[in-house]
Known about the structure:
The protein is mainly α.
Amino acid sequence: MLNHSRWCLILRSTQTFTLMYVIMKRLLLRKGTESQPATNDSRTPEYHLDSRVAHHTGRFAGELKKIAEITNIPVDELIKAGRSMFKASRNCSGQDQQQAHVVRVSILVERLKTDFPDLYQRLTRHAGHTQLVDKFVNVFHKIGGDIDRNQADWILDLATVDFTKGLNDHSREVFEKYKSSVLRVFDNNINSNKYSKEQVLVIKNARKIINNTSTEVLFERAQKGY
């Protein structure tokens, strides 16, 4: 009798766990996000801003160009501006911190997932990568949102470059145009009334890092994605 009661208890616990798992899975699907492995990638605001525009935007463009060549799917049919459907899990967060995507785009082609699963995973892993940062550099009405609204167009422009030819006149022009556009976004935010003095200093420091990054270095970082 005792053994029977114990097995009934185990069965109920298993059923409860299964039900909770199904509910959580449905909630995740309803939110439209696919969770990535948990990490603790906590970064300073300066690091995050620099990494978004001087590292990840270019590298994602290189990855996108390579995938377009392999699949014969045009780059502008692979992504568009919009909310990322992928997000890495974070082991910790705070009241003043948020998970901030380094690349904010929507992946468009469903057949990439079925026909080229390795390439799909490569693209979505990068699109899902987040850093734990102070929320003032991530909220949509400040500099994070301005980067979000421009990033897909920046990526598509950079992906017009032929990364097999090295830095030539065309690619230099594309990357210099990109850098100028990025710096304008920073200048507009620095000259706005959205931030405290300390926050303005943070954005200025990040701008200085980006301004001191040469066209050659920006190209090389993008080429690594290719």
